[in-house]
Amino acid sequence: MKRLLCLIFVLVLVCASLSSCAPEVMSEDALCRIYFLDVGQGDCTLIRTRGGDILIDAGPESAQDALCLRLKQLGIKEIALAVFTHPDEDHVGGADGVLNQISVKEVWLPVREMDNPSAARMEQTIEDSGANRKNVKAGEVLTVGDVVVATLAPLGDATNDPNDNSIVLRITCGEIGMLFMGDASVKVEKKLIETYAKGHISAQLYKVGHHGSSTSNTEDFLDIVNPTYAVICSSIDNSYGHPHGVVVERLQNIGATVLMTATDGEVVLECNKSAIWHINKKGEKQ
Questions:
Q1: Residue 97 CB neighbour total at 10 angstroms
Q2: pTM (2 decimals)?
Q3: Position with higher pLDDT, 238 vs 141
């Protein structure tokens, strides 16, 4: 009887373990799963497709070990494309660890030289890794699985402000659009509006620019983006006051569901070519 009880106990533990892993598996009807990883005050997004994985930024150096562990937990062995939007430490600080521990096929960097210690280490590691490196402006396009990654900015010549040299990405999966702004400011938003048709800026999923800062995210711009989901990446009680209340209010006023890594932890969404949905902590669609 004792052996039977022990066997039952072990089976219960195994079932519980499998249940806790279920949210890591992409839904059968999904073509893409998007993880906004909780790296504290910084940005890091992992996009998993059925044909390869994409990493956008790598958070601060302080989160490097946790980031690499999380990627390994998710079974990431190779990254098809890594995009480092601009050289701020809270976007590239963890890149060195990722590049040292995981094979990366291609890396996109902004056109302007990266000139801080974290970026310098990353540049050397990219060279040592043998990854195909590209310094990109608007107009770069790459297909990974069912996802098309396109750069909308930088537009024109580089500026002295690294935030405004951010690589801006529009990622599409069929009819579903996703917009990633890096830390681009109001100036870049205005240029995007002047340069592109509204359909090139609108997106069902919006990674909110500059961690929800009011130096970005104008009403005019958000009205055009008009997202179903808006995700803000920041730490709780950060010294910058991110996200700014006025930005959250603007997003709510246009009907967006606002999700924040500061309060929600890791945020996960999925999409196919016609729909996008949020995956809660239990692995359920919302």
A1: 23
A2: 0.90
A3: 141
Q: Which range is least confidently modeled, 5-14, 124-133, 141-150?
A: 5-14
As a whole number of angstroms, the distance between CA 61 and CA 76 comes to: 19
Residues contacting 35, CB < 8 A, separation 6+: 45, 46, 47, 48, 74, 266, 267, 268
Secondary element (H or E) of residue 33: strand 32-36
Beta-bridged to residue 45, according to DSSP, are 36, 56
Report the amino acid identity of residue 106: E
| Bridge partner residues of 32 (DSSP) | 49, 271
Q: Are 158 and 165 in contact (CB under 8 A)?
A: yes
With cut-offs at 50, 70 and 90, classify the pLDDT of residue 6.
very low
136-139 long-range CB contacts below 8 Å, 24 or more apart? 136/108, 136/109, 136/110, 136/111, 136/167, 137/111, 138/168, 138/195
> Which residue would you say has higher pLDDT here, 6 or 139?
139
Q: How far apart are the first and last CA of the chain?
A: 43
- Go through the domains of the chain in sequence order and give each one's CATH number: 30-279 (3.60.15.10)
Nearest to 58 by CA among 73, 30, 39: 39
* Paired tokens of 12: 């219960």
